[in-house]
Specification:
Layout lengths: L1 H37 L14 H20 E4 L3 E7 L3 E2 L7 E4 L5 E7 L3 E4 L8 H5 L7 E4 L5 E12 L4 H7 L4 H4 L1 H12 L5 H7 L1 H17 L3 E12 L2 H145 L2 H10 L16 H23 L9
Antiparallel strand pairs: 1-4, 2-3, 2-5, 6-8, 7-8, 8-9
Helix pairs in contact: 1-2, 6-8
C-alpha cells in the first residue's frame, strides 16, 4: 500500500509538472515570435498556434485524482496508534491501530501516538543512559521536603504507556505532548504531597517501600483518568542533606556497633553456657569413671580373695618342688664330679697307652730305618768296591758347584780318593763289629 500511495502521489506530481512544462514552452514560443515580428525588414513569419491552456488545465485537474487517492491512504507504523481528526467534526472516536487505513483527503488527518512503554526519570541515570538523555530526560533529582523540613532529592523512574483505547480522549482533551505536559507534574505533585507526612529516616530506611507503594498508587490513579497506564514506579535513590547524611552515618555506625556488641554478648553468653555444660558433663563423666573404678577394684579384691584360696596350696607345692629340685641338683653335682674324676682317670690311662704305643711305633721305625740304611750302605760299598771310579764321579758331583774341571789320575792313585776309600772301608769294619758284639740292643733315636 505504501508503494501504491507513493506511486499515485508521483503520478499526480508528474501531471502537474507536465502541465507547467507545456504552458511554459508555449509562452516561450509566443515571446520569441513577438520579438521576431517587432524587428523591421524581417522576413514574414508564419503565425504560431495559440497557447494550450486547455491541455494544461486538463492535466492539472487530472493530477488531483491520484494525489487525492494517495492522501486518503494512511499507514500507521508498528508500535504506534492514531486517531482521525476532522476539520469539521474535530477528533473522531475510534483508534487506528498499526496497518493501512482510508481517510477523507483534505478533510481528515491522522494524529499518531507512541503506544510503547515510556520512562519518566529524575536524578542521575544509571549506566549513562544516552538515549534517555537525548530524549530530554531530567538529570536533576526531584526535590521534596520531609516532615522535619529538610529537602530530599529523589531519583524516580516511572514506567508508563498510553492507553490505545483512549487516544481520542487524549487527543481531544489533554495538552500535547503528554510525555512532557502531563506526566512530570502529576508525578512531582504525588511525591510532594506524600513525603511531608514522613520523616527523613522513615523515607530513607524504615518506611521506604511503604512510601514508594503509596506514591505508585496515587500516580497510577491520577494518570489512569487521563488514559495513561502506569506499570511501575521505582524509587532508585535518595539524596540526603549533607548534615543529616553525616549524622545518619554516625548513627548507623553506632547502631552497627551496638548490634555487634549485642552479637558478641550473645556469643559470650553461649560460650559461658557451653562451658557450664562441658563442666557438668566432665563432672558426670568423672563420677561415672570413679564408680566404674570402684566396682573394678571390688571385683579385683574379690578375685584376689578367691584366688588366695588356691594360691596358698600352690605356693606350698612350689616350695616342696624347689626343695626337691635343690636335692636333685646336689645329687646331680656329686655324680657329675665323680663322673668327671673317672673320666680324667680314664683320660690319663688312655694318654699313657697312647704315648707307649707312639714310643713303640717310633722304635720300630728307627730299627727298620737303621736296617735299611745298613743294607743300602752295604750295597753302596759293594758297588764302589767293584767300581772305584764312581767315587770320583760322586766327588765331582758334590764339588760341581765350586769346581768346573777336575783332573784325576787314571791309575787311581789320587790321594783324596784313596783316603776316602780307606775311611769308608774302616767305617764298614767298625759297624760290622758293633753289630756282632751287641746283637740284642735296641737302637735309640738320637
Amino acid at each position: 500500500m505504501l508503494f501504491l500511495k507513493y506511486l499515485l502521489m508521483s503520478a499526480g506530481i508528474g501531471m502537474l509538472l507536465a502541465a507547467a512544462a507545456i504552458l511554459s514552452y508555449d509562452l516561450y514560443l509566443q515571446i520569441q515570435y513577438r520579438r521576431a515580428v517587432a524587428i523591421p525588414g524581417a522576413a514574414p513569419i508564419p503565425p504560431l498556434p495559440p497557447v494550450r491552456w486547455r491541455t494544461g488545465l486538463a492535466l492539472v485537474f487530472l493530477a488531483w485524482a491520484p494525489m487525492l487517492l494517495a492522501l486518503s491512504i494512511v499507514v500507521v507504523p508498528s508500535g504506534m496508534a492514531g486517531v482521525r481528526v476532522s476539520q469539521m467534526q474535530g477528533t473522531l472516536p475510534g483508534t487506528l491501530y498499526p496497518g493501512v487505513h482510508i481517510v477523507t483527503p483534505l478533510v481528515e488527518n491522522v494524529a499518531l501516538f507512541d503506544t510503547r512503554d515510556q520512562l519518566f526519570t529524575t536524578g542521575q541515570l544509571e549506566d549513562g543512559d544516552k538515549t534517555a538523555i537525548a530524549k530530554g530526560a531530567k538529570q536533576q533529582p526531584l526535590n521534596v521536603q520531609a516532615k522535619e523540613g529538610l529537602t530530599l532529592g529523589l531519583a524516580i523512574t516511572v514506567r508508563y504507556r498510553l492507553d490505545p483505547k483512549r487516544l481520542d480522549f487524549i487527543q481531544g482533551n489533554l495538552p500535547q505532548p503528554v510525555q512532557s505536559e502531563i506526566v512530570p507534574p502529576v508525578v512531582a505533585s504525588a511525591w510532594r504531597d506524600l513525603v511531608p507526612g514522613y520523616t527523613v529516616r522513615e523515607v530513607f530506611a524504615t518506611k521506604r517501600e511503604e512510601v514508594r507503594r503509596r506514591a505508585a498508587g496515587e500516580i497510577t490513579q491520577k494518570l489512569a483518568t487521563d488514559g495513561i497506564v502506569v506499570k511501575e514506579v521505582m524509587l532508585r535513590d535518595i539524596q540526603l542533606p549533607p548534615e543529616y547524611a553525616k549524622g545518619l552515618e554516625d548513627l548507623l555506625l553506632k547502631e552497627q556497633e551496638s548490634d555487634r556488641m549485642g552479637v558478641e554478648t550473645d556469643i559470650q553468653q553461649k560460650q559461658v553456657r557451653i562451658s557450664e555444660l562441658q563442666a557438668e558433663a566432665q563432672k558426670v563423666q568423672e563420677v561415672k569413671q570413679a564408680e566404674g573404678q570402684a566396682q573394678v577394684r571390688v571385683l579385683q579384691a574379690k578375685g584376689e580373695a578367691d584366688a588366695m584360696q588356691y594360691t596358698l596350696p600352690l605356693k606350698e607345692k612350689q616350695i616342696q618342688q624347689s626343695k626337691l629340685e635343690a636335692e636333685a641338683r646336689k645329687e646331680a653335682t656329686v655324680k657329675n664330679a665323680e663322673a668327671m674324676a673317672e673320666a680324667k682317670v680314664i683320660d690319663s690311662k688312655a694318654e699313657m697307652e697312647r704315648r707307649k704305643l707312639l714310643a713303640e711305633a717310633e722304635a720300630d721305625r728307627i730299627r727298620v730305618t737303621a736296617v735299611a740304611d745298613a743294607e743300602r750302605m752295604k750295597n753302596e760299598a759293594a758297588i764302589l768296591k767293584s767300581n772305584p771310579l764312581l767315587i770320583n764321579k760322586i766327588v765331582a758331583e758334590r764339588l760341581s758347584d765350586k769346581l768346573q774341571i777336575m783332573m784325576v789320575p787314571a791309575d787311581g792313585k789320587f790321594f783324596f780318593a784313596n783316603d776316602v776309600l780307606r775311611g769308608m772301608s774302616n767305617v764298614n769294619h767298625v759297624s760290622q763289629s758293633e753289630d756282632a758284639e751287641a746283637p740284642g740292643q735296641e737302637l735309640q733315636p738320637k
